[in-house]
Design brief:
- The complex is a heterodimer.
- In chain A, the strands form 2 sheets. Chain A has a 4-stranded mixed sheet with strand order 4-7-6-5. Chain A has a 3-stranded mixed sheet with strand order 1-2-3.
- By secondary structure, chain A is α/β, with parallel strands linked by helices.
- The longest helix of chain A is centred in the middle third of the chain and has 15 residues.
- Chain A has 4 helices and 7 strands.
- In chain A, strand 6 and strand 7 form a beta hairpin.
- Helix content of chain B is 54%, strand content 0%.
- In chain B, helix 1 runs antiparallel to helix 2, helix 4 packs across helix 6 and helix 4 packs antiparallel against helix 8.
- Chain B has one domain: Ferritin, CATH 1.20.1260.10.
- Chain B is globular and about 55 Å long.
- The chains are: A alpha/beta, B mainly alpha.
- The interface between A and B is medium-sized, with 28 and 33 residues.
- Chain B: InterPro entries: Aromatic_CoA_ox/epox, Ferritin-like, Ferritin-like_SF, PaaA_PaaC, PaaC.
Chain lengths: 168, 286
């Protein structure tokens, strides 16, 4: 989703600063990798960044807003406004390929198919690959895990438990 | 409107957290969180959003009771996750509902009395044992899945946006409770016997979800008719129950009037726990 980065150089600079903010719960990912960063603009009354929450109740969004604000203030922008938008609704389809790769390196299995596979009468079943040994002999232990966005899995090859970032 | 508040969009967030009825204003400018920010709900849309928001708030509060009491760690996490999703929906809906009367989401959650709540009776029903909670959740999620899918056709952009987000989450809730219905029904004689009773106990509160009234008639086109959601709900429920070889429960509908602010005897106890802290320590914030 790099297409969201503004073409205007001044706005792009704001984008690039905001894009460095990590997800407090999955610090290996930036808000850009996640698709949470939606837009950046520069106006006469300061700079404006728009984020979208991942899950409705996700507490990380407030932390992300504070982090974006302080990063931009550190960079010398005095008037910073961070807004949220709910529409279009966030989906894991927006996660960058680089982000998925970083997730796996970090030990979290990335979302492994498009969100459309979760709609309609026939739900797609895809193997989840163990981020450690890359075996596909894995099983879901708990659909709801340590955060809203993750499930808990177990690898039956290397016997290690791991988190899986749910398709959403 | 005893808690009128004027939110100054340019107020210094660290400045005067002035009380309004001794409630501090959340310094987060929630008005900006929603699409079409600055939009104000009409009184009718606000009343409708309050029904949905109160349903989500009360059920979230109920599920929160299970934290650290779940039958196993995974279920503890599942119910807290579902509670968190519902609280997120409640925040968005109540914030939006409050725009019509100048009240914040916290005003609506903590400073209304029982007769001002608009939630259905189903969400007031006791947590009971784990099967009771699952039976209640299954029926409610089946209803919400229909509701939020249809509400994405709303003429109101804020309701559309909230529904679009909520539907994805509710689909997980529905799947989770449906899986447990199947496990209980196909588990042991004891688990099967008990889930049948659990479903029968909450069944009287289903009809209330699908009643059209003056408000929903006035909002025709803007929001789905509750009665129009029944067929989809029945399909979901009968699919899962027939898979579990369970019969659709037979029970007289309860005289449930939650949408008019008349609640079951369980509601007062719920609110006492939900509201005591901000009422005991007005203006306190984390």
């Amino acid at each position: 989703m790099t297409t969201l980065r503004p073409a205007d150089p001044a706005a792009a600079r704001v984008w690039d600063i905001a894009a460095q903010v990590p997800d407090p719960e999955v610090p290996v990912l930036t808000i850009e990798d996640l698709g949470v960063l939606r837009s950046a603009s520069v106006g006469s009354d300061g700079v404006r960044v728009v984020l979208t929450p991942t899950y409705s109740g996700c507490p990380a969004i407030d932390q992300m807003r504070d982090d974006v604000t302080s990063k931009l203030r550190e960079a010398g922008y005095e008037r910073v406004e961070v807004d949220y938008t709910l529409s279009p609704a966030w989906t894991t389809d927006w996660m960058s390929e680089a982000g998925k790769h970083k997730l796996e390196e970090y030990g979290i299995a990335p979302p492994n198919f498009r969100a459309a596979g979760r709609q309609g009468p026939v739900l797609v079943q895809m193997a989840v690959k163990c981020p450690r040994c890359h075996s596909t002999s894995t099983r879901e232990i708990a659909r709801f895990g340590s955060t809203s966005c993750k499930s808990l899995y177990e690898c039956t090859a290397c016997l290690e438990p791991f988190d899986y970032f749910k398709v959403h | 409107m005893s808690h009128d508040v004027e939110l100054d969009p340019h107020a210094d967030p660290h400045g005067d957290l002035h009380g309004h009825g001794d409630v501090s204003v959340d310094e987060l400018r929630l008005a900006d969180e929603l699409p079409g920010s600055g939009t104000t709900a009409t009184p009718d849309i606000a009343e409708y959003a309050m029904r949905l928001g109160d349903d989500a708030l009360i059920l979230s509060q109920q599920l929160g009771w299970w934290v650290a009491k779940g039958p196993e760690l995974e279920e503890d996490l599942a119910l807290s996750n579902i509670a968190l999703d519902l609280l997120g929906h409640a925040r968005a809906l109540l914030h939006f509902a409050g725009t019509a009367s100048g009240r914040s989401e916290d005003d609506l959650a903590f400073w209304r009395d029982e007769h001002e709540f608009r939630n259905c009776w189903l969400v007031e029903q006791r947590n009971g044992h784990y099967g009771d909670t699952i039976a209640r959740q299954f029926l409610f999620s089946a209803y919400q899945a229909e509701l939020y899918r249809e509400l994405q056709q709303s003429t109101d952009p804020t309701l559309r946006a909230i529904a679009g987000k909520a539907e994805r989450e509710v689909r997980y809730h529905l799947d989770h409770s449906a899986q447990w219905i199947l496990r209980f029904a196909g588990g042991t004689d004891e688990s099967r016997r008990r889930i049948i009773i659990s479903l029968r106990d909450v069944w009287p509160y289903v009809d209330e979800l699908f009643v059209d009234d003056e408000l929903t008639e006035r909002l025709t086109g803007a929001v789905p008719r509750p009665s129009s959601l029944r067929a989809g709900f029945d399909r979901t429920v009968s699919t899962v129950l027939s898979e579990a070889a369970l019969e659709i429960p037979q029970a007289q509908p309860a005289w449930a009037q939650g949408r008019s602010g008349i609640h079951s005897t369980l509601m007062g106890h719920l609110l006492t726990e939900l509201q005591w802290l901000p009422r005991r320590h007005p203006g306190a914030s984390w």
